[in-house]
Amino acid sequence: MSRVKRPNRLFRNLNGKIAALPMIFTALVVFVGGTLWTVLYSFTNSKLLPRTNFVGFDQYERLWRTSRWLVSIENIMIYGVLSLVFTIVIGFLLAVLLDQKIRYEDAFRTILLYPFALSFIVTGLVWQWILNPDFGIQSIVRSLGWTSFEFNPLYDPDIVIYGILIAGLWQGTGFVMCIMLAGLRGIDEDIWKASRVDGIPKWRTYIFIIIPMMRPVFITALVLIAAGIVKLYDLVVAQTSGGPGNASEVPAKYVYDYMFQAQNLAQGFAASTMMLLTVLIVLIPWAYLEFGGRRKHG
Hints:
Mean pLDDT: 87
CATH architecture: Orthogonal Bundle
Low-confidence stretches: none
Helix content: over 70%
Number of helices: 13
Subcellular location: Cell membrane
Order of helices and strands: HHHHHHHHHHHHH
CATH topology: MetI-like fold
Family: Belongs to the binding-protein-dependent transport system permease family.
Number of strands: 0
Strand content: under 5%
Membrane topology: Multi-pass membrane protein
Oligomer: single chain
Keywords: Cell membrane, Membrane, Transmembrane, Transmembrane helix, Transport
Largest sheet: none
Main location: membrane
C-alpha cells in the first residue's frame, strides 16, 4: 500500500500565510523599522528635523541629568508598583465575589467593567472634577459639617501621583476582574468538591490551589497592566497636565513634550528608547515563562 505523501511544512496553510503577509510587512516596516530608526537617531543631535550628526551617548547622559526625567521615573515607579498590586488584588477579590453565583451578577459585572469602556481622557476629566476641592469630594464633605476636611491630591505635589493612581485603578480594575473571573470559571468543579470533602477552608483553597492553577491568567494580567503603565500619558494630561510644576511628570509625556513642543527630536528619541528597554524587560521574562516553560514540559 502506497503512503500518502504529506505536503512540505512550508506549504501547509498556504492561504493563511499569504493572507498574513500584509500584516507581517506592516509589522516589519512600521514597527521594527520605526523602532530601529528611533534608536539610531537617539545617538544624534537632531533638533527640529532628523539629521545624521552622531554624538554618541550625549543625549542619554543629558537625559539622566535632567531633573524632570528623574521625577518622571520616580512617578512611574510609584504608580507602576501600586497599580500592579492594587489592580491585581482588587480585580481578583471582585472576581471571587462574582464567582459566588450572586444575584444580578450580569448587572454588577457590567457596572464594574463600564469604566474600561471610557477613554483615558474622559476618565481623567471625570476624576479631575471629583477630586477638585471647590466642587468635588472635599467640597461635599465640608458641606456636611466637616469644615476642616482636606482632600485635594491633584493640587498637592507630594501626593499628586496618588490622585492619578485612583483614576487608573477605577478604569483598569474592572477589566482585570473579567480576566480573573474567566480564569475562575475555567477551574474544574471537582476541585471544589474535593476541597469541601477534605474540609479545607475556602480561603486556603484559593491561596494554595486556585491561584497556582491560574498562573497563566495572572501573567497575562500583569503583562497587560505593565504595558498600560509604561505608556501612561492620557490620564496625566487630562488631570494635571504634568503639574503642579512637574510633580506628576511621566516618561511618555516627557517624550511627547520634547519631540513636539521643545523640538528636540534626539532627546525625545533617547527617552523613548529607555521606555522601549522597560517594555523589553517586561516582555522577555513573560515570553520565557510562557513559551520556554511549555517547551521544557512539552
